[in-house]
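ZP: hey, is the zinc ion complex queued? I don't see it on the tracker
AM: it wasn't, my bad. submitting now with these inputs:
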Amino acid sequence: MASYSPGQRIEARCTRCRDITGHIIVVVLDGEVAKVECCACGSVHKYYPAENKARPVKERPLRVQSGQERGEAVLNRSSARTRVELAAASGAGTGTVPRPAKLSRAEQQSVKLREELEHQWQEAMARNPGMPKPYAMDGAFALGSLVEHPSFGVGMVLSVTPPDRIDVLFREGIKALRCRC
Ligand SMILES: [Zn+2]
């Protein structure tokens, strides 16, 4: 076994360079190198043998949460970019990644409005047990009466705007129709 003495040059792992660099021995304790000075960055630190590079000191123990595969934990620790690349490489394209079913504010309002209209329509149908009048462009329709449209179904006249327009509440929403008022 070689004996060490201060001032001697030695290969060691530098904590600042995070690499194996040339070091000058600063302190020797009981024949063992205790402190070294890095020739690359000049930092003086504890001696870490060069051959120990496989287990860098800064490496934190990998935490694997319950229900999570170790591979997944490794992926999570990697950068997002690496994760995407790995996903692409393993054939799991972005198309298979489930997107969160979150509606935008506008979409939410639109859905709410639709539900409200449908509710109004159902109430209108319940209030009006009479037979709907088939819709015709030259027909006349009274406020609150029922209209049957070939594509929209049965609706209730919400407003009459002379000379030629009625707004009708159908199940799918309010439609403006031409008529003879
Ligand atoms: Zn260094």
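AM: back. Residues 14, 16-17, 21, 38, 40-41, 43 surround zinc ion (CB under 6 Å).
ZP: great, adding it to the tracker
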